[in-house]
Design a protein that fits this description.
- The protein has one helix and four strands, in the order E-E-E-E-H.
- The protein has one helix spanning about 45-50, and strands spanning about 1-5, 20-25, 25-30, 35-40.
- The chain has a two-stranded antiparallel sheet.
- The two termini are about 25 Å apart.
Length: about 55
Amino acid sequence: MRASGAHQGLFRGIAPTRRHVNVAEFAMYRVVSGRIAEMTGSGDSELLSQLRGT
């Protein structure tokens, strides 16, 4: 999945920067009997890096 947007509100303690961010994410789900039993995926590290300008 690819997501993008502008940082307009407080996010994880970071005040709004108005920066435009663009991140790629993924998620994997393990399904048992038609229900999600486990999920893993990418974290917020790319997003946080863009918000901090690093």
